[in-house]
Amino acid sequence: MCGIVGYIGLKKAYPILIKGLTRLEYRGYDSTGIALQNGSLRVYKKKGKVAELEAFVKDKDTSGNIGMGHTRWATHGKPDDINAHPHESSSGRLVLIHNGIIENYSVLKSALIRLGYDFNSETDTEVLVNLIEEVQKQENLPIEEAVRQALTQVHGAYAIVVMDRDDPNKIVAARRSSPLVIGIGKGEFLIGSDATPIVEHTKNVVYLEDEQVATCALGQELSIKTLRNEVATHTVHKIELEIEQLEKGGYDHFMLKEIFEQPTTIAECMRGRMNAEEGWVRLGGMDEYMKRLVNAERMIILGCGTSWHAAMIAEYLIEDLARLPVEVEYASEFRYRNPVVRENDIVLAISQSGETADTFAALEMAKQRGALTYGIVNVVGSSIARLTHSGSYIHVGPEIGVASTKAFTGQVTMLSMMALILGYERGFLPKSQYQKLVQELSLIPKKAEELLQKCQKQVEYIAGEFKDASNALYLGRGYNFPVALEGALKLKEISYIHAEGYPAAEMKHGPIALIDENMPVFVIATNKSAYEKVVSNIQEVKARKGVVVAVVTEGDEIIKKLADHTIEIPETEEPFTPLLSVIPLQLLAYHIAFLRGCHVDQPRNLAKSVTVE
Ligand code: G6P
Question: What are the φ/ψ torsions at residue 378 (nearest 5 degrees)?
Fold first, then answer.
């Protein structure tokens, strides 16, 4: 949440900052602001998106080769011009941008008010910038030292960038629990919440660690200290991100592009890890810990949002194929429940961003309690990836649309591979069955491609039929129950239609009361097991004048006669159906949201990377 960008070098900072902010807009879009250093400090900020800031700044002085920018997802204080970042200290000497929450801001603010400080905004960030100014003033400290000392008084999460009017050739950055990446270019440094604003300028990056303060000064090497005042060494990593991955590539929205990328991204996720002809699947991250993984008594899977839905599918996969007991937990509930975690448990964390605060904290707790921790993450070098003992990247490339699509199918692909490995290694999957499933999984990219081509127009048509609905119900059984949850989440996230996902049989215990001719019921009915039961559920809906849209297996003539619309998906083995059945539901949510005039890539109130609890 909140995107941070900084630049110090020989080029003009403004265009670099604006471009960087556009790349980071997925992290929040309540307000935007920049600060530029050019002998004096200039701050421009505005409620709304980057485009509104650009219009506001059009006739203003944007000179300067040092600066910072911020795009906000509001926590403390409503989204308006005053609460927008950057925030200035009372004297105007310092400016600061912040991602995170300062938990003891109230105590600090009272102390600062007693010392004579005035506050304009409702934010915790303004408290922080004034605290740094106060510390700096007392002993006339250089800015990096003032930042370090001030942060020792702060509780909570932060990624900050600070500039000092009186020390104009320097930018200071620090973090705790919120991500920060520093790009090292030729005679320049770039700072970002992630690598997306940096990649155009350099591929060499340093991931700042928790409780580190970095000083980026013109003509000098990067210098990093810990909050305890120790000099920290750093490793320069090469990022593999390409600029084209950050563009829409001819699509109207990132979400649509990402839906259509799935045949490729699922294949990318499998690349080098599976061989259909030879019939094997291998994950480097599992190899080192295979003994512990195979002998574990239980697996606990943590996630939030769409990643939690992927975790639910993993429960079906791993219990079914590997006979290992699995518990799926909302990371936010797990961490505050004092859960039982044993040393022979495996705790798996699923996260696209690798930065979700609740998932990170829950994982940290599980690690402290002795479990083996394993990450399934998309963003390379992210905090969760670095915290876990081991893990596997899903390699689906940057996901920019706030509603997750290709990351979900990447996660489910990865979890399918894990389930196959565990099933085989634990002796529950005979070799012939294992090889058959490996072969079937390898066909999913091709089937996803066929499906997308085939269902595109039909889904667009169905979207037109239901775009004015106020409520929608999604039903599924077994492997397709989590798909029902995910379908409902996609619709509500981006179209603002109230939607619920339910296990099909549970419909009779409540949602059936809602069914009438106005509420579409989307049934994922591709299961081979329990097929008759799903058919009965469809009958029950139809008997109450409900409108049914069914996702079925190619050639299904029975449901075709019952449902108002059917969308066919290619046949596959039941454990892998979610990888296909979710695709028309993603597309449907997209088209409905588009027809309703909603901002598909940046839905209201949401953010992609939830770095606050
Ligand atoms: C937010 C995003 C969702 C995502 C969830 C978990 O709510 O909007 O798309 O599923 O966070 O994020 P993670 O990065 O941990 O997968």
Answer: -95, -50
